[in-house]
Specification:
four-stranded antiparallel sheet, seven-stranded mixed sheet
């Protein structure tokens, strides 16, 4: 079982970028999926999550209107399209899944330790740096 995130890189402020995360060893069909990020010195935060079935989504306040999450179950892959990027979007981005979870639950159910106990699988992070 593996989640492989890709697409990290250096982008200028105001630019656009897309991250991908491919699943292998299991099917995403019944999993809520999400993107999280962790900036230096900060705790990991849920950026955006999407349900397994009805298309409902969650977006963190800092990315609403700029980021779009999507999934292609046929390709067993999820995406995060980012526009109008800001330096504060600089972070390591992680993809994650949770079986039959709600998007809000997946993205926001964080324990006092900073862990996300609802997450079944984490992908390795990919660095996104927004800088001129």
């Amino acid at each position: 079982v593996q989640l492989q995130a890709s697409g990290g890189g250096l982008v200028q402020p105001g630019g656009s970028w897309r991250l991908s995360c491919a699943a292998s060893g299991f099917t995403l069909d019944y999993y809520a999926i999400g993107w999280f990020r962790q900036a230096p010195g900060k705790e990991r935060e849920g950026v955006s999550c999407i349900s397994s079935n009805d298309g409902s989504t969650y977006y963190g306040d800092s990315v609403k209107g700029r980021f779009t999450i999507s999934r292609d179950n046929g390709k067993n892959t999820m995406y995060l399209q980012m526009i109008s990027l800001k330096p504060e979007d600089t972070a390591v981005y992680y993809c994650a899944t949770a079986f039959m979870a709600s998007p809000v639950g997946l993205c926001t159910a964080v324990a006092a330790t900073g862990d996300y106990p609802g997450v079944d699988y984490w992908g390795k992070g990919t660095q996104v740096t927004v800088s001129s």
